[in-house]
Amino acid sequence: MPFFCYFREQFYPLDTPILQSNDLGLLRGYGLFDYFRTYNGIPFRFEDYWARFTNSAASLGLEVPLSEVGVRSILQRLYDLSEEREVAYRLLLTGGYAPDGLSVSQPNFIIRTEALPVDNPEGRKKGIKVIPYEYVRDLPYVKSTGYVHLIKMRTELKQESAADLLFYKNGLVSELTRSNIFIVRSGILITPSKDALRGITRKVVMEKAVGRYPVEERDITLAEVLAADEVFTTSTTKWVMPVTMVGDTKIGSGLPGPVTAELLAALENEFVAYGRSEIGSRKSAG
Ligand SMILES: *Cc1c(COP(=O)(O)O)cnc(C)c1O
């Protein structure tokens, strides 16, 4: 249970205040992050998350102060300190301290272990409701720390018994606030080609679809979503989550569909098997 974070060569209990208030992440929202977790005690697809994180950092002109190897050893140490079987990790990179409130000199890089996200088995069984929301993220390939719209809309989401927002702009959908979207139409899997984060779960699902369903990456209109046979969303925390209501419109039969269920099962199998075949893999995960 003891979760720690790493910052400038030190490890701290998670509740330690470590940042000054002139950090550009706080002052200007200049920051990015990544979020992943272990399966069988091993960070799932770390190389993919690391590639996305370093690309995001490069897009914002921020230098990541550690190498992949250095970060891997910190992840191991944080895992050991946690004494948990499975943990979630957050990499957080901000513009750093700026006495003038604008200039980047030394980015701040924090690595945190956290408890696993709260699961939503009910949602996976019945599907979730999302509300269309006219917005497209800027710098959509950067996992930035800006989630203003989600947090601002939390009360309304609760009132509508909705789980999330579905971003669309000029008639085209892009993603949910923290997850990607797929639709199923006549046995074809379709996901937006642009304006959405390159989700690692999206990538794994597309791999799992090979040999089962054709996949198209292209523009999707909101009207197509409403008329789809099935809709689902993917993320590290949601896995494959059926979407059965979009606003007041029921999707398909209103129940999670067979393609969604098959891809969810394929993904779950991948998690269960993860790292199991590696020779000399890390110490028993319990
Ligand atoms: C994190 C995130 C996703 C999903 O990415 P995963 O790598 O599958 O977790 C999609 N869209 C946004 C905006 C995100 O922040």
Automatic annotation (TrEMBL):
Keywords: Aminotransferase, Transferase. Its EC number is 2.6.1.42. Gene3D superfamilies: 3.30.470.10, D-amino Acid Aminotransferase, subunit A, domain 2. It catalyses: L-leucine + 2-oxoglutarate = 4-methyl-2-oxopentanoate + L-glutamate; L-isoleucine + 2-oxoglutarate = (S)-3-methyl-2-oxopentanoate + L-glutamate; L-valine + 2-oxoglutarate = 3-methyl-2-oxobutanoate + L-glutamate. One of its GO terms (molecular function) is transaminase activity. It is an enzyme of class 2 (transferase). Pfam families: Aminotran_4. InterPro entries: Aminotrans_IV, Aminotransferase-like, BCAT-like_C, BCAT-like_N, Class-IV_PLP-Dep_Aminotrnsfr. Belongs to the class-IV pyridoxal-phosphate-dependent aminotransferase family. This is branched-chain-amino-acid transaminase. It comes from Ravibacter arvi.
